[in-house]
Amino acid sequence: MRIIVGGMNHESNTLNPIITGKDDFVVFRGKEILEKGMLPYYSSTGIIEALSEAKCEIVPTVLARAVPNGVVSDEFYYSLKSEMLERIRSAVAEGPVDGICLALHGSMKVNGLGCAEEDILSAIREILPEVRLTVALDMHATITDKMLACADGFVGYKTAPHIDCRETGALAASMLLRSLKENRPLTTRSRSVPMLIAGEKSESAAEPMKSLINMCMEAEKEPGVMAASLLLGFPWADDEHEMVNILVTTLDDPCTADAIATRIAKEFWRRRADFKFRCENYDTEESLKVAFKAAIEDKIKPVFISDSGDNPTAGSTGDSTDILEQILANEQLLDRLPTPLLYSGFYDAQATADCLDAGEGSYIDIEVGGIWDKINGKRIPLKVKVLKLVNDYGPFNSDLALVQHRNMIIALTSKHIGFGDEDLLPALGVDPKDYCIVVVKLGYLEACFSEIAAKAILSTSKGCSNEVLESIPFTRIHRPIYPIDPDTTYVQG
Fold first, then answer.
1. Mapped to the 3 state alphabet, what secondary structure does 271-332 carry?
2. Which residue of 179, 218, 231, 309 sits 20 to 30 Å from the alpha carbon of 431, by its own alpha carbon?
3. pTM higher than the cut 0.85
4. Based on the domain organization, do 176 and 62 belong to the same domain?
5. Residue 5 confidence (pLDDT)
6. Are residues 86 and 226 in the same domain?
7. In-domain check, residue 473
8. Does residue 478 lie in a domain region?
9. CB atoms within 10 A of CB 404
10. What is the CA radius of gyration of the chain?
């Protein structure tokens, strides 16, 4: 069998003013996808491995991925779309195509267009209207009617943090292959639930998500059920389609798909009030108060604070200074800490460049933050010592700088990248276990941090990934919706 593969993966935060462009993406083209693009945290890797095991002829097109950020540049998106479609047309000209399997996010928004997924799926359908098509999605995908009309089967991640990307891709490929081998169509049914959920209230290891995911996994054991997925939408995209969707894909059994989706949706709604933060959580001021007490009086080490309102992996800018301002307002307490406070970190290309120009060991004046998020951040002047510099770090080739201001050490990046990367701090020669307080721009802690945290605090700080959804001035989301409208009623339809 001859199967077309490709993908686009970006989680777009419409509250973030940054336009995500060409320089923010890693793009693999053609055979590069089968070589350099086989990364373990890509769902496309699972797709390709499953198709290879089945001895399929794989036709690679384009695979693009960027760290969550603001909406994607229309110019860049259309160029990427054009290239993918041209490669598909070339594949069709070379011979029959049996199927298509794509790795998409589901919440990629394009400046001036909106939903990228429904646009690219519609365009592919114009070229190959009858060929079976399956899609691997992020758990935080936003589902539209047009997406449902343009693909045969969907499956989303079942873990948050997302550690089953590869497995999800493999399932997307396997249900396509089974449909083709048995010559039975795939049918997908959806049930929407009028809810917005912050990612940090929906960790898969905690209730109620644990039980709801188990419902999906039990449903997948039923005859002919290929995939049952909880797709939560993306709460920091102010879009009329944002809400929870339950998607069930079966082999030619729409009644079963509908019944399962309805059953899980009802249970999801019943448990709506159970979605809560898993760890201690406070506003910015209280978070720091609790952390300083734990470090100074109780000798706890390390205490992690999640700067959740400015989490780049949720599409925030990475330059809100809400927590930094509060730390600097308490410099007497800062100086009492038994070790420096570690802050990872800030996306600030100018400050990073200033450090690179000065060199390691230099003492310089810099300004940090407030370039993009001017509502929750301002330029903060700091007198720092440049401790460590790194060029071209990671797949996005970011420069890094590690600086010290009084009893605080700060990581700086020249590119908009995530701070949950287990290799970033080691690249700067930093072991977070050596610090009494670690502030990191994340929501829930990634495993590399949660495993070593003696105490974890989630700060509901200010930024473009504000966890207090009720405080966000939405203008486009469907209303009423829970919890923004606490009296929302759910009519199953």
1. CHHHCCCCCEEECHHHHHHHHHHHHHCCCCCCEEEEEHHHCHHHCCCCCCCHHHHHHHCCHH
2. 309
3. yes
4. yes
5. 98
6. yes
7. no
8. no
9. 16
10. 23
Classified as helix, coil or strand, 135 is: strand
Length, in residues, of the chain: 493
What's the pLDDT at 135?
98
My answer on whether 312 and 267 are in the same domain is no
Partners of residue 188 on adjacent β-strands: 249
User: Cβ of 486: how many Cβ atoms within 10 Å?
Assistant: 10
Asked whether the predicted pLDDT for residue 48 surpasses 80, the reply is yes
Which among 156, 137, 446 has a CA at the least distance from the CA of 313? 446
Task: Single out the residue of 161, 108, 111, 160 nearest to residue 135, CA to CA.
Answer: 108
Listed residues 210, 243, 274: the one ending a domain: 274
330-357 pLDDT, tens digit per residue, is 989 999 999 999 999 999 999 999 999 9
| Residue 350 structural domain | 282-466
Domain final position from 247, 274, 301: 274
CB atoms within 10 A of CB 34: 16
- Cα(215)–Cα(261) distance, integer angstroms: 10
CB atoms near residue 89 (< 10 Å): 12
DSSP string, 449-466: HHTT-SEEEEE--SSTT-
Angle (CA) 426-429-433 rounded to 5° is 70
pLDDT at residue 493 greater than cutoff 80? no
Query: What does the alpha-carbon distance between residue 5 and residue 176 come to, in Å, rounded to a whole number?
Result: 12
Does residue 493 lie in a domain region?
A: no
Phi/psi of residue 186, nearest 5 degrees: -90, 140
Question: Can you tell me the distance from the alpha carbon of 36 to that of 285, in angstroms, rounded to the nearest whole number?
Answer: 45
Tokens 């384009």 — which residue?
62
- In angstroms, rounded to a whole number, what is the distance separating the alpha carbons of residues 229 and 442? 25
Number of domains in the chain: 2
Per-residue tokens: 283: 């506003």
